[in-house]
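Re: beginner question about structure tokens

> Can someone show what the tokenized structure looks like for a real chain? I only ever see the sequence side.

Sure, here's an example I had lying around. Input first:
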Amino acid sequence: MHKRTLLLNALLLASTCLAVSTPALAQTWPSKPIRLVIPYAAGGPTDVIGRKLGVLMSERLGQPVIIDNKAGAGGTIGVDFVIKSVPDGHTLALVAPGPVAGMPALGKVPYTQAEIQYLTLVARNPSVIGVNTKSGINSLGELVKVAKDSPGKLNFGSAGLGTTPHIGSELFKQEAQIDVIHVAYKGTAPATTALMAGEVQFMTNDLMAMLPHAQSGAIKILAVAGSRRVAQIPDVPTTAELGLPKVLMETNYGLLGPRGMPAEVQKKIQDTVADALNTPTMKELLTQLGAVAVTTTSDGYRSLMQSEYEKWKGVAAKGNIRLD
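And the corresponding structure tokens:
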């Protein structure tokens, strides 16, 4: 009986400690620098947003936010690192849909949805279809004609297998019924550089990645892959206007971490991000990039990624696109 009493008391003590640990952690969080993983190469749109967001979060939380670019495998390397880290709120990731919706739709990834703690969306950006200005192609119709006249000759670049630029171009390829070749790069920045260098002939990419190069004259944006034109490029028609209404693609950037993070820490992160997004500095940056700030609940973010998964799964199945 004495041993049973000791064991019971130990279990009660352990459960009590566990019960008080969550609010205690929330009160002290962050107790050390926060690592914000960007699962793509430096210089891309996620990286640009993440670095500015990191500065603003650091100002509000009183701890450094260290940007850590872990590129590769369409973003799954960085995401896998984060969701397998200690769930104390000190290791987070800013991601596009690729590693959580696109890559899982193409095949097996080293984690499950159950391991991901979605936190909040941060920004939304429409995709656009662009070409190298020197290509001489001045409209989406011309691009389709060139592709049909020379099947298998045109290349399109992407940030990697299963990323938004990849699936966006595959969707365009299927709807326009053209035969073009996919060339994968390790991130949006090197893929965009390849487009400007003429290594690939076109690309479906976030407006924020293409806009500066369009303004400099290196890239010509042919269409917005959405139902509405955007203010930054008001003269560029939408894919819907050009007879391809199903070619709709946008990138939703969001913050996530490992499952098991205390609810109070999640709430503190969400509130901090919302406050940062409401600053003139962040609003100005997103406007310059052609994006808009957007926040959601954890459940809202998860639901959106589930719908994106279903969409990308359909494109992948039709195009016979697999990771293995």
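Each token stands for a local structural state, so reading them left to right follows the chain. The chain is about 45% helix and 20% strand.
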